[in-house]
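queue> pop job 88
queue> type: inverse folding (structure -> sequence)
queue> payload:
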């Protein structure tokens, strides 16, 4: 190692130590309310990464739409992370800061079968329709993806046939019903299917039938620590976070 390299290494190490020390010295705690669906798993990975990188603490809870809105209006949170429609509504009402909205990720609906089971071809609307008709049972949820599935089967003209053999997952992932054999084929957001053991995700819905479900962050107008909330949003748009999102089945803007 040359003398100059030694000096450079020493300076770099010193700067890094200074940054870490500064982060710890100014460590803060923020409160985040987030939606359900794929977000508990996604944020469960990303929040600890942010805390480790910055020294900040994040108190996060996952709730339904009405409860999220109530928390934001009461000034109980610094940051909200949920479907973009809800964040946009909160911004329109003034509960989310006008310049505080950020699109974070886009989720799509996927299809799964039990691990090791034959994988039907779902590459076109007609082939997807045939796969649903051939299945003895069809699983979907009551959430955003489940509502979209109902729209899709109506469009395909098989709503009654699918309803007659539907397995509606309540309080658990659709993948759990597929893994147990209750549903021969199941549809849910890809990022909700991937964490489930015992299933194979065979692909996304055909493009003509697909639904994109965007998730955004919004800094609350009544945030007690908007700066740290912005820091978390910035981290969620970093390369490290984007890599995690892609691995979990999310598209990134």
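queue> result:
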């Amino acid at each position: 190692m040359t003398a100059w390299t030694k000096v450079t290494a020493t300076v770099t190490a010193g700067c890094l130590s200074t940054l870490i020390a500064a982060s710890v010295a100014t460590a803060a705690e923020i409160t985040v309310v987030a939606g359900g669906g794929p977000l508990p798993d996604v944020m469960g990975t990303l929040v600890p990464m942010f805390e480790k990188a910055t020294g900040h603490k994040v108190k996060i809870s996952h709730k339904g739409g009405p409860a999220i809105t109530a928390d934001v209006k009461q000034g109980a949170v610094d940051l909200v992370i949920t479907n973009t429609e809800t964040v946009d509504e909160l911004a329109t009402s003034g509960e989310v800061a006008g310049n505080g909205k950020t699109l974070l990720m886009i989720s799509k609906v996927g299809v799964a079968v039990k691990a090791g089971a034959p994988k039907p071809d779902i590459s076109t609307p007609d082939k997807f329709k045939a796969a649903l008709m051939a299945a003895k049972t069809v699983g979907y949820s009551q959430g955003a993806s489940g509502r979209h599935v109902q729209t899709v089967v109506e469009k395909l003209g098989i709503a009654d046939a699918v309803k007659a053999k539907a397995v509606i997952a309540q309080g658990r992932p659709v993948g759990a019903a597929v893994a147990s054999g209750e549903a021969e084929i199941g549809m849910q957001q890809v990022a909700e299917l991937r964490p489930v053991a015992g299933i194979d995700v065979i692909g996304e819905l055909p493009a003509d039938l697909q639904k994109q479900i965007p998730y955004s962050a919004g800094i609350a107008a009544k945030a007690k620590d908007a700066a740290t909330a912005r820091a978390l949003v910035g981290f969620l748009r970093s390369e490290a976070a984007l890599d995690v999102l892609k691995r979990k089945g999310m598209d990134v803007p």
